[in-house]
Design a protein that fits this description.
The complex is a heterodimer of chains A (263) and B (290). Chain A is 77% helix and 0% strand. By secondary structure, chain A is mainly α. Chain A has a single domain, classed as MetI-like (MetI-like fold). Chain B has two domains: 113 residues, D-Maltodextrin-Binding Protein, domain 2; 102 residues, 3-Layer(aba) Sandwich (D-Maltodextrin-Binding Protein, domain 2). Chain B contains nine helices and nine strands. In chain B, α2 runs antiparallel to α9. Chains A and B meet through α5, α7, α9, α11 and α12 of A and α1, α3 and β6 of B.
């Protein structure tokens, strides 16, 4: 058999088509099931706009947090030499595989009002995270930042470090080398990590409702609003809000191709 | 030293750039990684809602019941119905009862969307009505219990909460159920009866969420049912609400129209309405149907 050229394989094509349709059908369901006649009413409803606004603010904030804190962490995991690195990496990426509601409970026990960090924090400063926008951002960061860390870490690992050595040997400072050589080299993984993190934060539900509660206009993000409307029998509203989220995500995914390139 | 590494990063760019001397394989592996990561993100985002039970293999004939009976019941019924379920299984050997506990509004939606339930026990007539209005219940629902509200506070009542009026204090953090859920309707009625405006910090999707938040000390108080205060024992404390401010909710039960195991559904409903079921409900603090 010739391994270089992939001949047309009907079984492969069939399975691939089924896989693609598996993802497409639910989207078709959303589009055909949407209450198109009342769409504008449902979407411009104050609670829907509040939820969308909160979702955007919270997801962007947790993305910024991921960039600020996740990048140094990714750097150390990729370049640092210290004991227990594997353990640190495992712990940091654990939220990716944990059910988000477990994350929410864990967050409450650490940063909640009676949590071992939350309680002294509350006593000292009066700041209490649950049921606040800050709490939503904490929950989203907890669940989404690992996507940034592992993506950027593997970008840093797989880049050609000889180019950095060359830059340094030609007299460029560390900062200059970082800006002019390292950053452009890892740009695709930075962009990928940022978009994945943002998308994961935007879709966060379990940790948010557990840690930050559900209060319209305060901590009720889009996924929570959608869940509440579907579980209260307001299916039309749930579908309309879901479509909004789909469109927002789609726009960003297309925009991401523009900035990071791609085929 | 660093050359020749197989790229393992989810790269979006397949364009030439420094360090992108990757082959066909590398690019596709990278794309695959992106796809996997994206799928992982979507799956994780979607895995939060409750699942429905598997269909049961029940009998359809009259007489001896068998198989599995799936009961969708309000969260506030959890402890009482678990005990009733055990009693029912003992009384009808060969029958297994499976419960799905959630907020009544959520359960009603699931049933109207075709969840394979045999019995629906709601914490309020309003949520049962959405099921009967959709033609998804058999016959007229029957009231099997009543319940009433109570303020649940932290163990030892550190905030010295003594009345519904205290909950209007902005320094007191209060959790309630969302207005669509029966316990939320009860809370709304109580605040109205007491003539106070309470700004809760969270509207939970079922009464269990309120109980958890009070138990963990995340809120100072929550409006729950008297049965929840009772069931939670010494982990929390209760502050009774005077009758003239309180609200009473009635619990209706009905067989679901397309019940996979109709005969067992009927048997379960009569067990709940019968002396054995009523005794258990009373022991958990529920009031008999008025």
């Amino acid at each position: 058999m010739d391994d270089q050229k992939q001949p047309f394989n009907p079984l492969l094509a069939l399975l691939a088509a089924l896989a693609a349709l598996f993802f497409v059908f639910p989207l078709i369901g959303l589009v055909t099931g949407a209450p198109w006649g009342r769409m504008t009413d449902v979407i411009t409803n104050k609670s829907a706009l509040d939820a969308l606004g909160l979702s955007i603010i919270a997801s962007l904030s947790s993305t910024v947090i991921a960039l600020a804190f996740g990048f140094p962490l990714a750097w150390l995991l990729a370049r640092g030499t210290f004991r227990g690195k594997g353990l640190v990496r495992g712990l940091v990426t654990l939220p990716m595989v944990l059910p988000p509601v477990v994350g929410g409970i864990a967050l409450l026990l650490a940063y909640g009002r009676r949590g071992f960090i939350g309680e002294p924090l509350d006593k000292a400063t009066g700041i209490s995270l649950p049921f606040t926008l800050a709490g939503v951002i904490v929950a989203e960061s907890f669940v989404a930042m690992p996507f940034f860390v592992i993506t950027v870490e593997s970008g840093l690992r797989s880049m050609n470090r000889r180019l950095e050595d060359a830059s340094r040997s030609l007299g460029a400072s560390r900062m200059m080398t970082f800006r002019r050589v390292t950053l452009p080299l890892i740009w695709p993984s930075l962009a990928a990590g940022t978009v994945l993190t943002w998308a994961r934060a935007l879709g966060e539900f379990g940790a948010t409702i557990t840690f930050a509660g559900n209060l319209p206009g305060r901590t009720q993000t889009m996924p929570l609003a959608i869940y509440i409307s579907q579980s209260s029998g307001r299916t039309d509203e749930a579908i309309a809000l879901s479509l909004v989220l789909v469109v927002v995500s789609l726009v960003v995914m297309i925009f991401r191709r523009r900035i990071a390139g791609g085929d | 030293m660093m050359t020749g590494r197989q790229p393992e990063i989810p790269r979006f760019s397949a364009q030439a750039g420094p360090g992108s001397q990757r082959g066909w394989h590398g690019r596709h592996a990278a794309l695959l990684t992106v796809a996997c990561a994206a799928v992982a993100a979507l799956v994780l985002a979607a895995c939060s809602s409750s699942s429905t039970s598997a269909p049961s293999g029940g009998s359809s004939g009259s007489g001896k019941v068998s198989g599995t009976v799936v009961v969708f019941a309000a969260t506030s019924l959890t402890d009482a119905f678990n005990q009733i379920g055990a009693g029912f299984e003992k009384a009808h050997p060969g029958v297994t009862v499976k419960f799905n506990y959630n907020g009544s509004s959520s359960l009603a939606t699931s049933i109207n969307q075709g969840a394979p339930a045999d019995v629906f026990a709601s914490a309020a007539p309003a949520n049962m009505k959405t099921v009967t209005d959709a033609g998804n219940a058999v016959g007229t629902p029957q009231i099997f219990a009543r319940n009433t509200g109570e303020i649940m506070v932290e163990k030892g009542n550190p905030k010295k909460i003594t009345s519904v009026k205290d909950l209007a204090n902005p320094a007191i953090k209060v959790a309630v159920c969302a207005p669509e859920v029966p316990c939320g309707a009860v809370a709304t009625a109580i605040f109205k009866n007491a003539g106070v405006t309470v700004k809760p910090v969270s509207e939970e999707t079922n009464v269990g969420g309120v109980v958890t938040k009070v138990t963990l000390g995340e809120v100072d108080a929550g409006i729950v049912y008297v049965t929840d205060v009772e069931a939670n024992g010494s982990k929390t404390a209760g502050v009774p609400i005077p009758a003239d401010q309180n609200d009473i909710t009635e619990y209706p039960i009905a067989q679901v129209k397309d019940a996979p195991n109709a005969s067992a559904a009927k048997a379960f409903i009569s067990y709940v309405l019968g002396p054995d079921g009523q005794k258990v409900l009373a022991s958990f603090g529920f009031m008999p149907p008025g």
